[in-house]
Amino acid sequence: MPGAVAEGCKSVHAGNTTPGTPNVRKKKLVTGTRKPPPRDAAEKIRELAAAGWSKIGIGRQLGASNKLLNVWMDTHPELQDAFDEGRDREHNALYDVLFNAATKKGDTTAAMFLLKCRHGYREGTLPENFGPSLVIFGMPGSAPAEKWVSPAQRKVIEHE
Question: What is the 8-class DSSP label of residue 8?
């Protein structure tokens, strides 16, 4: 917040010579402008994201914290674009491996994984795009036994 003053700060403020007045320094907001991104940051971010690195790991490779990397990506849209492009490359490479395993090598586990993730298949249920089925059974209503069983077919079972 502009104009905020840090409590208990011991730094000397130029021109503050009034006796009894505490020496305080204004708090500066972190904006990421103190440490600019390296010149080749976009290319490094793109390569590292394509290789599967996390944002924390990418930040460390650039000599920045995760918070600073996020500030850089907010203030330099080309860095966020490079990260997104790298993640997209990684996604496509992984998908190609999985798709080829399922279709060309006959890997049923890979095939089931793709069906579940991409097409909504769930074990024990029908897919969402599967039409509803309706089965109707015609059951007779209650009727006396004489209607269904002739007197010759009736047996009495004795029980103790």
Answer: T
Q: What is the 3-state secondary structure (H, E, C) of 39-66?
A: CCHHHHHHHHHHCCCCHHHHHHHCCCCH
Instruction: Report the SS3 class of residue 90.
Output: helix
Averaged pLDDT score across all residues of the chain: 78
User: pLDDT above 70 covers what percent of the chain?
Assistant: 62
49-60: pLDDT as tens digits = 999 999 999 999
Q: Which residue, 98, 97, 95, is CA-closest to 108? A: 98
What is the Cα–Cα distance from 65 to 41, expressed in whole angstroms? 14
User: What single-letter DSSP state applies at residue 26?
Assistant: B
Look at 158 and 56; give whichever has higher pLDDT: 56
User: CA torsion angle for 113, 119, 122, 123 (degrees, to 10)?
Assistant: -60
* 109 φ/ψ angles, rounded to the nearest 5 degrees: -65, -45
CB atoms within 10 A of CB 77: 9
Check: pTM over 0.70? Answer yes or no: no
Residue 87 burial by Cβ neighbours in a 10 Å radius (0-12, 13-18, 19+) = middle
